[in-house]
Structure of PF09966 family protein:
Amino acid sequence: MEPTAEHNQRMAQMTFASVYPLYVTKIEKKGRTKKELNQVIEWLTSFDDKKIKELIEMKVTFQTFFEKAKLNKNADLIKGMICGYRIEEIQNPITRQVRYLDKLVDELAKGKTMEKILRNG
């Protein structure tokens, strides 16, 4: 199933600051830490803790967030279903990148090891 143009636009305009606390809540309920979450975000985007905090304070959209990111060379190894969509089939780059992040957070919450989450080829 391919997301609609409206869905892609909504994803691009959503702010990282509005979603980050939801990620934190999701992973902390499962016994994971904010430090681990930030490690996953850094692996995907190259943003360190300081940059993540800055982007939250700036209330950047996911469009801006991923435009500023230096995506990990192994990001395309993130595959599977998330929110009813098969990640590798999503054509829109921003929507696919948001789903990459969602999938990594989901794997963190499900207790996968950092070694498996941080795909190193």
